Amino acid sequence: MNLKNVILGLLVMTFFAVQKAHSQGMIDGFYNTKGQLSLTASYTGSKVEDFYVGTTKASPVPALNTIEQSIVSLYAKYALMDNLSLIVNAPFISSKSGADADPVNGETKVSGFQDISLAAKLRPFSVDAGAGSLDGITSLTIGIPTGYEANGILSNGNGAFSTDLHVGAQYNFNMGLFATAMAGYSFRGEAENTFKTAHGNKFDVPNAFLFAAKIGYAGAHFYIEGWMDHQSSSDGVDIMGTGFDGNFPETKVNYTRFGATAYVPITKALGVSVGFGSVTSGRNISITNYFNGGITLNFDTM
User: Fold this and answer.
1) Which of 21, 160, 141 is nearest to 93 (CA)?
2) Using the 8-state DSSP alphabet, how is residue 33 labeled?
3) Count of domains in the chain?
4) Cβ distance 67 to 12 under 8 Å?
5) Least C-beta-crowded within 10 Å: which of 23, 39, 180, 208?
6) Alpha-carbon dihedral angle through residues 180, 181, 187, 192, given to the nearest 10 degrees
7) pTM of the prediction?
8) What letter would DSSP give residue 104?
9) DSSP letter at 197?
10) DSSP E strands: which ranges in the chain?
11) Residue 19 and residue 294: Cα distance in Å, rounded?
């Protein structure tokens, strides 16, 4: 086994470990009235052919050549109060090699749930401002790993518990336009040291600064948004760089992504969505374009 190729290949799946598979994130600036429940099933497809080793673009994926990935995500949001929503997201990921078997685990295909995410979103204030209103956004998200193998080219995530804190605001124009900005920080826990190269049985997964922004239109007949999403690790090492001991989840992962999402309500209780996203720059991360579609069911439980 060529360990260098294995290590380089490990970075391909970090993108999906760092960010949740549900679109550009679980947290938005909209709040439902008490008792409203929405359930979304979505599908995301992508093909990975290139990646960043440090900040250097490399191609193709070592050993596997390419990776095809499918994500089926189940997402639920319930308004416990007008200003407080509870959110659950569970992405099921299937990844397939475009050539040889994964030299770490000998598999050409893996599948399973990624981290299960639980979030609470609170609106601390809502005030009239000029030609619209300004809503505050605060949230707490907990990511729970589901026992997958974290070190492997075909890996569903980094295997660490995480706690994400966000704060931001959304301005809603009376005509339906809106703009959102959020900043956050992600506290990552420890992952199993399956390579046993250093640091004992476990090692730290780097924490990260987070930022997201959106502009869009939310009307009675359709919703559309353009978004950007950024992450910058606060510590960690580069793949094949100084201090790298062969444990991929301890590497720093930076990225900037852009994308768009559209949603159309078919009835009051049913809607459909489509979207796409693209990594435009990064560090130790896969370079990929992906497309998704979803179906949403809405209920009023009160």
Assistant:
1) 21
2) P
3) 1
4) yes
5) 39
6) 60
7) 0.87
8) T
9) S
10) 36-48, 50-53, 56-58, 67-81, 84-97, 109-113, 116-122, 126-129, 132-144, 162-173, 177-188, 190-192, 202-204, 208-218, 223-233, 254-265, 270-283, 286-287, 289-300
11) 18
Q: Which tokens go with 158?
A: 């980094």
CA distance linking residue 223 with residue 171, whole number of Å? 16
Nearest to 133 by CA among 75, 173, 98: 173
Sign of CA dihedral 60, 61, 67, 71: negative
What is the bridge-based pairing of β-strands 208-218 and 67-81?
A: unpaired
**Residue 146 belongs to domain with CATH number:** 2.40.160.40
Cα torsion 183, 89, 21, 115: sign: positive
Distance of CA 270 to the CA centre of its chain: 25
What is the C-alpha to C-alpha distance for residues 30 and 218, in angstroms, rounded to an integer?
10
Q: Residue 95 in contact with residue 157, Cβ under 8 Å?
A: no
What are 176's strand-pairing partners? Answer: none
Residue with the two structure tokens 């359709």: 222
The tens place of each residue's pLDDT in the chain, 302 residues long, gives 343 333 333 333 333 333 444 345 789 999 999 999 999 999 999 888 888 888 888 787 666 778 888 999 999 999 999 999 999 999 998 888 777 776 666 777 888 888 899 999 999 999 999 899 999 999 999 999 988 777 766 777 888 999 999 999 999 999 999 999 999 999 999 887 766 655 567 778 999 999 999 999 999 899 999 999 999 999 999 888 888 877 778 889 999 999 999 999 999 999 999 999 999 999 988 888 889 999 999 999 98
DSSP 284: S
Tracing tokens 């639920």 back to the chain, one arrives at 76
